[in-house]
Automatic annotation (TrEMBL), chains A, B:
Homodimer. Its main location: cytoplasm. The lineage of its organism: Bacteria, Bacillati, Actinomycetota, Actinomycetes, Micrococcales. It holds the Pfam family URO-D. This is Uroporphyrinogen decarboxylase. It comes from Leucobacter tardus. Catalyzes the decarboxylation of four acetate groups of uroporphyrinogen-III to yield coproporphyrinogen-III. The record marks 87 as: Transition state stabilizer. The gene is hemE. It catalyses: uroporphyrinogen III + 4 H(+) = coproporphyrinogen III + 4 CO2. Its EC number is 4.1.1.37.
Amino acid sequence: MNELPENHPLSDGRTTHAPLVRALRGDRPERLPVWFMRQAGRSLPEYREIRKSIGMLEACLEPEVATEITLQPIRRHGVDAAVFFSDIVVPLLLAGVDVDLVAGRGPVFAHPVRTAEDVARCRREFGPDRLREAIEPVRAAVSRTVEELGSTPLIGFAGAPFTLAAYLVEGAPSKDHLRARSLMHSDPETWRELLDWTAELSDVFLTAQVEAGASAVQLFDSWAGSLGVADYRDHVAPASRRALQTVQSMRLPGGGAPLPTIHFAVGSGHLLEEVATLGTSAHGIDWRTPLDEASARFGDRFPLQGNLDPAYLDAPAEVLEAHLDDVVRRGRRAPGHVLNLGHGVPPSADPDVLTRIVELAHER
Amino acid sequence: MNELPENHPLSDGRTTHAPLVRALRGDRPERLPVWFMRQAGRSLPEYREIRKSIGMLEACLEPEVATEITLQPIRRHGVDAAVFFSDIVVPLLLAGVDVDLVAGRGPVFAHPVRTAEDVARCRREFGPDRLREAIEPVRAAVSRTVEELGSTPLIGFAGAPFTLAAYLVEGAPSKDHLRARSLMHSDPETWRELLDWTAELSDVFLTAQVEAGASAVQLFDSWAGSLGVADYRDHVAPASRRALQTVQSMRLPGGGAPLPTIHFAVGSGHLLEEVATLGTSAHGIDWRTPLDEASARFGDRFPLQGNLDPAYLDAPAEVLEAHLDDVVRRGRRAPGHVLNLGHGVPPSADPDVLTRIVELAHER
């Protein structure tokens, strides 16, 4: 058990009764809380304006800029939580890995990590200590954001170890992560070493955000859906557990409640029984699995987050509203519900539609 | 009921007792039949040699070349079936749609199909009659291939209406097919018109292959996995049924058995109960769902095809063999089993490993 220090920003209880925090703890606050994955950045004109003069990764590492981008959707949409503006490769970058974000493609690595030697070199040169030494800009941005947010909670965020590993092995985005999954079966020991390393980096990245004032965290596994149940259970879940280990042991000062943690994996409808074992307080559900069905499969044990289908964002207002009503109705089965999309905000989304969804949610 | 003509190549019963045909009919032949999705092309050096002097779509439409490529994996691996060398965009191309295959990317359309007007124009200008008029090269290639194959069955093949529509709406490959799924919800009537049209083209394409001598067909839905159950059932399954309608009504001369049909959708573990309603004789299962689990969910009613994980192709021989044993063991639960990969042959596959898999399957 790690108690956060007395001078921690949340020790004044500023977000303890926020609808988001209450819902993630399994409560039913008077207002249905809503936020949107990828709400910071992408579709907002005020974000695009900022990005005219600064690159994506630079924006993540410049505290003043990251704070501003994180706050934009709060001002515009009135969502119930901010999510820290970052990218899943930021911990790798800070640890020293040579990675760039290529527009229209995604993360591209100068040196794909494919052999036992590659993994050993990563562990030696880009370890968690190096990340800890370089992480100050992230702490500074979180502190500044939390100060501005007041009683609105900030959600910290990290990519899951498998997703980081899949990018590293492939060297770039790929469809089925075949190289990564091949390494898993050809050399399971090297695979384990690789995931131990990415899990340590995710752990440090999440922990720093909580120490600086995040009220909850989300572990985001973009690619777990490419795995069968046995592979996920044997070769991936232990690393996700490891990534969450420190934040799950943290308590607010004075014997406070544990910090809410959310797990979200895209396309993982077949893995629900496995992600249930990760120990997070809540689960994000993608657009493919109805919330009542997900809750039933979880034995109605977890608050759920989700899962408006982004494909409805362009639909006529009454069609979108009927879809929202359906999601809210199904979400009532779970012990708590945070309304969200079932995937990130598409770059093409109309910001006014997102604002309208927040209004509709708050009227429910 | 459509009886095939007396002079149909299969009227001599040449493939009736082939292990593939028997397994797809729910029998347990003395030899476990095996073939590989995408076995024709891609990883074979003799295929790459041919492709040095001819483009992909030209190769599909040049009967002599398509026949040679279709036969190559029979000669090299000794698989139990040939699969017709083609591409899912071929019916669109033959119907007049302006489409190109861009290396490293996939099909790219000159005019994405996104509005009611776009769909009306497609139906008017690129209808099934135009495909029927242009399909002779496909018939010729199938006839020639069937002649060469003798008692080895040829599997005909077409892309499913949803997959064709997803490409057409996006105009190119995409990750979540968001534009296509948005059209589905924004304008369901236009969506239905679009899928009616692609279903008719798939139907004509499959029917031509059967009339020319294919012993079975596979409908391949690359992108159905992006859909939730309700969307698949309401907006997609009826079109897949329509695409299979004619071939499912066909019988060999003299009151012969119906032609075996296979449905395969990638990432569709959550849709098994829905694809069960399509009326196909057998189902392909991707690498994520163990065959015994799939069979249980089907009520053990269908022969299954699959589902070696392509991620094992690079693994040490004993690891691959243990995986194969596991797949074969689980496949015993189904009323019939055709061994295959759980996805297409990766371009990086070692052809000798595929040959070894055939040998191992035939020893089982």
